[in-house]
Amino acid sequence: MTTSAQTKPQQMQPKPGEPAVATPDVADALSRPARSLWRDAWSRLLHNKAAVAGAIVILFFMFVAIFAPVLAPHNPLELNSGKGFLPPMWVERSSTGKAGVPEFILGTDNLGRDVLSRVIYGARVSMVVGFIPTIIIVFIGVSMGLVAGYWGGATDNLLMRLTDIVYAFPDLLFFIIVMTALRATALGQFLNGLFLLFVALALVNWVGVARLVRGQVLTLKERDFVLASRAVGASHFRIMVRHILPNSLSVIIVAMAFLIPGAIITEAILGYLGLGLRPSTDPTDIFSPVGGRCCSKARPPSTTSRGFCWRRLSRWRWSSSRSISSATACATRLIRACANKAAN
Amino acid sequence: MTTYLIRRIFWMVPVLLMVALITFTMMHQAPGGPWDRDPSRRQVDSSTQEALNKKFGLDKPLFINLEGGNPLDSQFFTYVGNAIQGDLGPSYRQRGRMVQDVLFEPPKGKAIWDSRFGYSMRLGLLALVMAALLGIPLGILAALKRNTFFDYSALFMSTIGISVPSFVLAIFLIILLAGRLNILKIIQRDWSNPAAWMVPAVVLGFGTFAYITRLTRNSMLEVMGQDYVRTARAKGLGGRVIITRHMLRNALIPVMTIMGPALAGLITGSFIIETMFGFPGSGREYVTAIGNRDYSMIMGTTLIYALLIVLANLTVDIMYGFLDPRIKVK
What we know:
The structure holds 2 protein chains of 2 kinds.
Chain A: H1 3-7, H2 24-30, H3 37-47, H4 49-66, H5 68-71, H6 115-151, H7 153-168, H8 171-181, H9 186-189, H10 194-220, H11 224-231, H12 236-247, H13 249-272, H14 300-304, H15 310-318, H16 321-343
Chain B: H1 2-29, H2 46-55, H3 75-84, H4 99-104, H5 116-144, H6 149-163, H7 166-180, H8 194-224, H9 227-234, H10 239-268, H11 271-277, H12 282-292, H13 295-323
């Protein structure tokens, strides 16, 4: 409640059922600043402790990602020869027989690169991989879903058939084969392969969103408010965008909150298989990919398929950029849970 | 119902064909071929390569044969034709073995479930059973004790379960159980010991467990507010009867129906876990095959997995009809 609203006498507001036909100046005098639905939603969100906690975690990681050059103690790509495999600074003797040094807080990887800095820079990849594909997916999915649900007919048929195919495809297998096949092409090299990952994620996921939105549209378009706006002469486009879309937002938000962590984790898994972003050696690169690669050969499986070995384990142990992935995923889940609650 | 079923089953054919087409196209975009060797080793010379290509039909055009009389005499259609007859082609890397043998043939003297696919299937089943046996009771209790400490802990656990990538959990458990506590071998060779299966199954099923918990809790909460529950209470039925007869029967419908896709997801998604634990399943074959450009192996695994998923999705729709008579299949 704003203060202006509290000072206004309540009894002067028009009773429900009575037509609000006050003259413009009276209406102006009576009204408090309009509180939009967004504002309402916002204040409800702020009252939800879990949502606020989730938001803080996400903001923290965004902060880390944006200010990575300031926060990181070293360049994540800088090689410190002779200082590889250092344990974190609090470990006195690691399995490699080395002691941690304060210079490298979380130790170093196999090539002597500072792990903490790599984790900090890794937040950039996770953030970008989580949010950008989701925006693309939601944009394509929502427009296709709206059109298919509203118009039906051929578009709808096409969408449903596409869904069947995409649902039948084991999605990780699809990501793996796309990343392998197009890795060497210009598309695969653009932005260190980040762009290809976006494309692959979008190809698989837009259909799910479209189907979800389509389902919503199918029920919403029979509602009275759609009929009413058609009666006053609203165009189809206006009905879709101004009336149906806002009413299906809750479903879209929930879907988004599933997509973001999904994308982050997919990137992490591909990274583990050596199929994620291309390893960067250029120190000026803003997305220096971190972590998952456990082998540098062009043919990862020949090394990964041979079970598990300690060397790789120790290399992996500290490449904890993935803990960032999971923390972000966790936070987005929390927000989703609350968005869900708010939507209901 | 019958016509619907028949239509659905027939529709599986074009879907699988499209999956095959996409995989085939993608796979041939990847640079290199099945005869490439590690750059540091001696290469296969070109005449041998030609002979090999000819032998395996890799010299044919990819999709449409424009030269010969038969336009369908191409790599893709030959493969599809053979696959329909149950012949998934020879593996290019594992000489002398057919893809279906690599996946489904058990070692000599063993039963079918000791084949690679059998291993993946059993691991997936074990993971699903554990996830369901833990997840369903936890979800029910969380819903019954809503907004208590128990509920929040269950929710917290399921959030963790959905958020933590399986391989992070796997590494954590390997370090803890094998590295520190020494109760597990880091490289497991002998998989006949059921205890060795536990850790991979736990890791694989953790995400599903979290999902099942959440789903059960949500659908329980939804059912608890229904009129028929109030009616049952008004009739004077005891709490236990209401919970088991009235609530659970309805609340478990969505949980039951996701079991099929969950199993399919666990089997097809297990290759990371298989790779990490050195588990001799079929998922690992896929990862190896991609690296080796073992074309027939890639196609075979993808198609088998796609078939599994399509069947799982079909069972969902059928099961809904049986479990919940209110839903009519159109």
